[in-house]
Amino acid sequence: MSFETIIYEAKNNIGYITINRPKALNALNAEVLNELSQAVDIAEKDEAARVVIITGAGGRAFVAGADIAAMQNMTAEEAYSFARLAQIIYNKIQDMPKIVIAAIDGFALGGGCELALACDIRIASAKSKIGIPEVTLGVFPGFAGTQRLPRLVGTGIAKEMLATARKVPADEAKAIGLVNHVVEENPMAKAEELAVEICKNSMSAIALGKRAMNEGMEMELKKGIEHEAALFAVAFTTEDQREGMTAFLEKRPANFQ
Ligand code: CAA
Q1: Number of structural domains, the chain?
Q2: Whose C-alpha in 1, 141, 191, 221 is 20 to 30 A from the C-alpha of 17?
């Protein structure tokens, strides 16, 4: 399915969302964000997509940030609405009951870094640079970067990235836990390799485990642990639990739904 600035397709159990505005290094304006929102909804419902990969077209950038030209003359009210539009989409990505992988080939800056942070797993090519350079523009990250980045890499590193605006090279991004894997080139191939591994497992169990982690991270530890038990119990209401355990005991591969 093709919009103006986003391409969505599903094949081999993977839903691909490609941000396709390469002339502006895939910068996010309201049109891109609205189409991204629709593509995320489609991917979530699409039974042909068991894992979702988000990437950027053109080979130079994942996303180079929110569109600076579109923001230049925004009023405070418009800036608030623009930030909320992106934040709500990014929250949908975080909450999707499927694993979402960011395949980063080039710049992931500002709103692009923040999009990658909303995904579950990040893969970057060696040439990639990831950062939140908004303070060079007189603003700061407004697509949830001030919230997700410190949760992922810790406040010390996040504040340094905020204040220096430095574009962190891929190998360093890996060392600080900002990306899961760095590959010489073709992060899509690595993302697909992970997707194939993920697809062998129970989708319902992955969804429940992802939810337990997401929701538990916002709770006090012992509440999170209790919440885990409640969701663990839900896993025992699924066909996949019966199939997975029966298959193990019958010494055969599980055939999950
Ligand atoms: N918004 C709008 N246009 C952008 C853009 C952005 N974020 N990033 C790149 N572009 C456009 C450029 O204006 C240029 O367009 P033209 O060809 O029409 O001039 C085109 O993409 C190619 O970019 P460059 O010529 O600048 O390419 P380069 O290789 O010299 O530099 C770059 C690449 C270092 C990524 C540089 O483009 C850059 O610094 N981009 C801006 C990065 C940034 O500051 N991002 C944060 C945006 S603010 C934000 O995201 C707020 C938030 O939290 C939500």
Answers
A1: 2
A2: 141
- 168-169: strand order across its sheet: 61-63, 107-109, 129-131, 168-169
> Does a structural domain hold residue 136?
yes
**pLDDT digit string, tens, across residues 238-257:** 999 999 999 999 999 999 98
Q: Which ligand 1 atom minimizes the distance to the CA of 66? A: 50
CATH code of the domain covering residue 233: 1.10.12.10
The C-alpha torsion from 22 through 26 and 32 to 37, rounded to 10°, is: 120
Structural domain range at position 151: 6-199
CA distance linking residue 141 with residue 233, whole number of Å: 38
Tens of pLDDT, residues 197-213: 999 999 999 999 999 99
Angle between the 203-216 and 221-235 helix axes, to the nearest 10 degrees?
160
Residue at which a domain ends, from 175, 199, 223: 199
**Residues 66, 170: one domain?**
yes
Using the mean position of ligand 1's atoms as its centre, give its distance from the Cα of residue 155 in Å. 26
**Ligand 1: residue whose CA is nearest its atom 40:** 64
Residue 257 included in any domain: no
Nearest CA to ligand 1 atom 11: 24
